Amino acid sequence: MIPPRKTRTIRIRHLQVGGSAPIAVQSMAATQTRDIPATLRQVRILEEAGADMIRIAVDSQADVDALAQIRAQTKSLLSVDLQENYRLAEKVAPFVDKLRYNPGHLHHHEKHKPVEEKVAYLVDVARKHGLALRIGINAGSIAPSYKERFGDDHVAAIVACAVDHCAMVDALGFHDFVVSIKDSDPRLVIDANIRFAQARPDVPIHLGVTEAGMPPEGIIKTRIAFEQLLARGIGDTLRVSLTVPFDDKGLEIKVGRELIADIEAGRFRSVPPNFFDGLNIIACPSCSRVENARFVELAADVKQMTAYAKEHDLTIAVMGCRVNGPGETDDADLGLWCGPNFVNLKRGPEDAGTFSYDDILAALRRELDALIAARATS
Ligand code: SF4
């Protein structure tokens, strides 16, 4: 039931991705990279679950040093997430097999440099070290120039950004790259990936629904997107993002493989009635930038505490760090992003205070009650 895919095949060391190669299943370490024992434990958990590749985020020299030690203790293919600090590419390159950059984060450093120059630098590093690249676009961090050009049409903005970055990389004569276009809403993921695949049918695609949240909703959101896309022959590698305790991260690989097997066998699940109505909780899967491991527990507590409001069409976002948390909670009705020993609460894009981990649930409850009451009278 998965039709032949039309993309070219790229190589990430020994792993082929795209074309007729099996769909590769990958995941990401949820721990702070500089905590080497914890991150190695994540790597082992993902290896045991059968991950084809493991991604690790790196933000600092301490993370780079840790990555070097982790590399020495695993034979797994490693991908690194550069996020805002794209210049770390040359430091991490000797220890990894693939680099991921987010076009929406390239403007943060060296603002005077044109994006083309930054992309040329990344391609140069990848070429010198024999690495593959991922152009990893996230609807929560659209590059400012595309926001200006496309306004509220986020899908048009992210697809245009993906197509332009492919053209930049093509122009440099580099072909070992994949593209991902992710969002927390599976409907946007479907729309954007179909449009991108029409524009660039040759480019292998990495699928994912980011910040899908906790099971079972996170799995259902992912399934909705992957069923639609894989059944159209779109998707060459994938990652399932779930907010689960760090020791349960193997579930992401297990679910990814089950989804592929189900779609191949034609076992499609119907979307539960009214799935998109009512309270929507989005939560990040955690990564090296997580500020406090209590984040995962907090996300579960938020889900439990807000169950009383499940009939209300509201979105609550729970994010693990200050890097992506502030931006990626802007579009939610209420948002939480975690610091090391405090949690920031937001009302849409507005700040609604900072609370301890012990006090945040009560503050969220007050905000939620006020929002529901305000909507009832409007
Ligand atoms: S919000 Fe922060 S901690 Fe969560 S996955 Fe994104 S970068 Fe990592």
What this model shows, in words?
It is a single chain. With 378 residues, the chain is of the alpha/beta class. A hairpin with a 2-residue loop joins strand 1 (10-12) and strand 2 (15-17). 39% of the residues lie in helices and 18% in strands. The longest helix has 18 residues, at 154-171. The protein has two domains: 10-264, Alpha-Beta Barrel (TIM Barrel), CATH 3.20.20.20; 280-377, Sulfite Reductase Hemoprotein, domain 1 (2-Layer Sandwich), CATH 3.30.413.10. The protein is globular. Iron/sulfur cluster is lined by residues 284-287, 289-290, 319-321, 323-325. The site of iron/sulfur cluster has 12 residues, from loops.
In short:
By secondary structure, the protein is of the alpha/beta class.
